[in-house]
Amino acid sequence: MLRLLLALAVTVVLGLASRLYPVDWFLWDRVLGEVLYAVAAYLALAMLLFRKPPLIIAVTAFVCCLSVELFKLTGIPAENQRMFLVRWFLGMTFSAVNLGYYFIGVVLIAFADSATRCSKHGEKGLVKRIERKPGRTHAAPDPAT
Predict the structure, then answer these.
(1) Can you tell me the mean pLDDT for 108-121?
(2) Spatial distance between the Cα atoms of 86 and 70, rounded to a whole number of angstroms
(3) CB crowding 102-129: b at 16 or more within 10 Å, else e
(4) Rounded to the nearest 10 degrees, what angle do helices 54-71 and 96-131 cross at?
(5) CA 119 to CA 124: how far, in whole Å?
(6) Helices 32-48 & 54-71, crossing angle to 10 degrees?
(7) DSSP labels, 57-94
(8) What local confidence, expressed as pLDDT, does residue 112 receive?
(9) Residues in Cβ contact with 50 at an 8 Å cutoff, skipping those fewer than 6 apart
(10) Residue range 11-34: average pLDDT?
(11) Chain segment 25-80, per-residue pLDDT in tens
(12) What is the largest CA-CA distance in the chain?
């Protein structure tokens, strides 16, 4: 849980930095913020759904991002752009390109989450299987003899 919280904090800081401090580089000024929006959605959901596999969390995060993007088509966010939370968390106008950025972000963080989960849980699972093997009270015979 701590690793997810720290990752979320770093993600938010980087995302805000990419918006507040533009450097006239498209990847920093535009793409990074959108990718990190999806990463933050994944990490927030991963903290709530910590027992679910990364694939389920990834699909849920992408659906949430898709829902927010489609909500922009109603015009409600644009009408309320004066509100800080609407402007920063929802955005104002629909962009189909953002869906690709969200997909990239969700896929990247799901792979990273899966890799860190497997290494942590894989060792424990292997040790438990060896310890619980019934009828094994002695070492396995040496095949060379």
Answers:
(1) 81
(2) 14
(3) bbebbeebbeebeeeeeeeeeeeeeeee
(4) 160
(5) 9
(6) 130
(7) HHHHHHHHHHHHHHHGGGSHHHHTTTSHHIIIII-SS-
(8) 93
(9) 1, 4
(10) 91
(11) 989 888 999 999 999 999 999 999 988 999 999 999 999 999 999 999 999 988 98
(12) 81
Q: pTM of the predicted model, to two decimals?
A: 0.77
Torsion 79-83-86-88 (CA) sign? positive
Average per-residue pLDDT for the chain? 84
Spatial neighbors of 8 by CB under 8 A, at least 6 apart, are: 40, 43, 44, 47
Residue 72 φ/ψ, nearest 5 degrees: -60, -25
Which residue in this structure is represented by tokens 């015979």? 141
The first and second tokens of residue 107, run together, are 């896929």
The total number of residues written for the chain in this structure = 145
Please, which contacts does 80-85 make with residues 24 or more away whose CB atoms are closer than 8 Å?
none
